What we know:
The chain is of the alpha/beta class. The chain has helices at about 45-60, 75-85, and strands spanning about 1-10, 15-20, 25-30, 65-70, 90-95. The chain has a five-stranded mixed beta sheet with strand order 3-2-1-4-5, covered by helices on one side.
Amino acid sequence: MKANIHVYLSLNNIIVSLTDSNGNVLGWASGGSTGFSGFKKITNSAINLIVLKMIDLIRKKKIHTVSVFFKGIGKGAETLINLLQRNKINVDIIGDVTEIPHNGCRPKKKRRL
Length: 113
C-alpha cells in the first residue's frame, strides 16, 4: 500500500498528517499533540516524537511506500526525512508544495493631505 505524508512547517509548530492515495486522512501528529508548548514545538525532540508516532501508524496500516510533501518555511524537513529513512521507511517522492505569490495583494492607496 502507498500513502502520502503531508508536512506543514511553520515558525512555531510542525503538523504532520498521513493520508492514503485518495487523500483520506489516516492519522496526524503535531508538536502540540506530543506534549510540547511554545517554541519547544519545533525542536528536534518534538520532531523525533512526531516521526515515531507516524512510523507506528505506518506499520499498523501496513504501508510500504510513502511520498512526503512539505509546505511552509520552517525548519525540520531534513530531520524528518533522515528519521524516516533511518527507520527503514521507503520514501518515494519528496516534494515542496509551498505556495509562492506571483504578484501579491494590491498596496494601500497613498495618503493625500
